[in-house]
Recover the amino acids of this structure.
């Protein structure tokens, strides 16, 4: 998307901001970012305009040594019934973690290390499993809700660069 935008005549310089889970909306609202990628239903798009980029299924990430790692598919109930691999917990928009036995994680590096060690698991968008480490396996979760990736921006934005980026993003 960024390469396509940069190829456009008059493209503005893009500064890429990397952030932790659920911080995108805050960065948009306080003016630190002009656009963000959100994953619905995990992120909130309240007060933002959005354009859908794509929708995908979800997978469970397991250590390769786990018996379910060789399956071709799995159901949510099977994943949540694994007492030895409780679901990882991500912080909410306010920074607090939901209750539960799973590991508290803030980024994929932490998460994947804990999964490889056999301490936790996660159900996440299929695209997050691209280029997985060799000690991790992704198994499609048949009944997990689809995840829609959107590009979002503040409703009041009238920046030409934002409009140009949106045009390129939705064209790809």
């Amino acid at each position: 998307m960024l390469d396509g935008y940069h190829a456009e005549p008059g493209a503005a310089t893009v500064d890429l901001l990397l952030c932790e889970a659920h911080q995108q909306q805050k960065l948009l609202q306080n003016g630190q970012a002009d656009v963000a990628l959100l994953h619905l239903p995990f992120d909130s798009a309240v007060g933002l305009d959005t354009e859908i980029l794509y929708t995908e299924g979800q997978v469970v990430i397991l250590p390769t040594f786990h018996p379910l790692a060789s399956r071709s598919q799995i159901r949510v109930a099977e994943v949540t019934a694994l007492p030895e691999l409780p679901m990882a917990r991500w912080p909410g928009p306010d920074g607090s973690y939901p209750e539960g036995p799973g590991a508290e994680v803030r980024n994929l590096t932490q998460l994947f290390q804990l999964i490889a060690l056999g301490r936790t698991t996660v159900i996440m968008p299929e695209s997050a499993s691209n280029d997985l480490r060799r000690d991790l396996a992704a198994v499609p979760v048949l009944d997990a809700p689809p995840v829609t990736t959107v590009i979002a921006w503040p409703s009041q934005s009238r920046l030409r660069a934002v409009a140009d980026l949106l045009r390129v993003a939705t064209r790809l």
